[in-house]
Amino acid sequence: MLEGIRIVEIEALGPAPFAGMMLADLGAEVIVVHRKVPAGTPGLGERSLLDRGKRSIALDLKAPRDMAVLEALAARSDGLIEGFRPGVMERLGLGPEAAQALNPALVYGRMTGWGQAGPRAAEAGHDLNYIGLSGALWYASAPGDAPLTPPTLVGDIGGGALYLVAGMLAGLLRAKATGQGTVVDAAIVDGSAHMMALLMAMAPEGALSMARGRSLLDGPHWSRTYACACGGFVSVQCLEPKFYANFLAAMGLAADADFAEQFDAERWPRLTARLAGRFAERRRDDWAAHFAGAEACVAPVLSPEEAAGDPHLAARGTWVRAGDTLQPAPAPRFDGAMPSLRAAPARGEHGAAIRAWLEGRA
C-alpha cells in the first residue's frame, strides 16, 4: 500500500521503531539509521523484530561525514522519524527546520512521551508515567487493586507509535497534494488521553465516574477477568443485554433475581464475588468449551504461545514464526490478503549499498 514511499528512521527506543516497522509492513521503504558501535557490543549486534522489512545503515551522527550521509537521505526521502528528547536532533544539526531546508516536502515525525513543549517536555519518563499522567491508566484493574495495563500497549504503542503512524500518513497525503512538508508532534500523553474518547462516549451524558469501579466497563461483574481452577483466566464482557442474557443462561443464572438488574452498580461487587466463586470451580479450557457458540462474549485469556495455536488465530495467521521466533503478523490486511513478512536486517547490513545509491554508483 505504501510502495514508493521512503522513510528514514533514526534509531531510538520503543514507539519510534515500532512505527517504522508498521510503515515497512505496509510496504514503505524504511531505512533505519543505526548507531555505529564497536563490533561485539553486547545487545546491539542482534537483529531486532522491530526492524523487520527495513534496510539498515550504521552512522555516527556526531561525525560530519556520516551526518552528511543522513542529510542526503533526508533530502531524498518522503518522511523522517526520530524518537529523541526535544532538542537533540537540533543539536545534531538536523532538526525540522534544517531538514526541511534540504527537502521542503519532508514529513518530520517526532515521537516523545511528554511532547515537544510543556513543563515536562525535557523530563525522563516511560510508558506507565505517561499514561498515569494522561488519565489513561486510571480505569485499569479492579477497584482496590493497583492500576496495571499490559506493558507498552496503552502508552508506547497505542498512544505513541500508532498516533505517529497516523500523523505520518496524514502528512504524506498533504505533502503529495501541496508539496509542503509538516512536523508531526506525536506525544504519548496526548495519544493515550485521546484514546479515552471511546470510553468517555459510552458513559451517560459523555461523562465517566471519577471513582474507579463505578463506570460502565471498569466495575461490572460482566466486564472483567476471572480466575479458574487451573490458575488460568477467562475474560467476560457481555455489555449488551442480549449477550448478558446468553451469559446468564450459560451460567445457569437466568432465573436468579440477583442478576436481573445488569446495570445496578450497587450490586456489581456482590455479583462479582459470586461469579468468581463459580468460575473457580472449573478449568479455563473447560469454560472455553462450555461457552463455545453461546454468543455470551466470553473468551479464554491466552499467552502469545497459546494464542498462536488457537484455531481462529491460526486460521488467520495472526501469529507467525520466523525460524524459532514467534512474532505477530503485519496488520491490517487489504482485500483480505496477508501482508508479506520480511526479515529484519543486521545492523549496518545495507550500508555499502545505500552509500553507493546516494553517490549515484548503484
What do you see in this structure?
- By secondary structure, this protein is an alpha/beta fold.
- The chain contains 14 helices and 11 strands.
- The protein has helices spanning 15-25, 64-75, 88-92, 96-102, 127-134, 153-178, 188-194, 196-202, 241-251, 268-279, 284-291, 304-309, 311-316, 351-358, and strands spanning 6-10, 29-35, 55-59, 79-82, 107-112, 182-187, 223-227, 233-237, 298-300, 319-322, 325-328.
- The strands form 3 sheets. It has a 6-stranded parallel beta sheet with strand order 3-2-1-4-5-6, sandwiched between helices.
- Strand 7 and strand 8 (233-237) form a beta hairpin.
- The radius of gyration is 24 Å and the shape is elongated.
- The two termini are 25 Å apart.
- The mean pLDDT is 94.
Topology:
Layout (H helix, E strand, L loop, with lengths): L5 E5 L4 H11 L3 E7 L19 E5 L4 H12 L3 E4 L5 H5 L3 H7 L4 E6 L14 H8 L18 H26 L3 E6 H7 L1 H7 L20 E5 L5 E5 L3 H11 L16 H12 L4 H8 L6 E3 L3 H6 L1 H6 L2 E4 L2 E4 L22 H8 L4
Parallel strand pairs: 1-2, 1-4, 2-3, 4-5, 5-6
Antiparallel strand pairs: 7-8, 8-9, 10-11
Helix pairs in contact: 1-6, 5-6, 5-7, 6-7
Cα end-to-end separation: 25 Å
What is the strand arrangement across the widest sheet? 3-2-1-4-5-6
Total of DSSP H or I helical runs spanning 4+ residues: 14
- Taken as a percent bin, the fraction of beta residues is 5-15%
User: How much helix, percentage-wise, in residues?
Assistant: 25-40%
Categorize the overall geometry: elongated
Class of secondary structure makeup:
alpha/beta
Tell me the Rg in angstroms: 24 Å
**Element order: H for helix, E for strand:** EHEEHEHHEHHEHHEEHHHEHHEEH
Low-pLDDT ranges? none
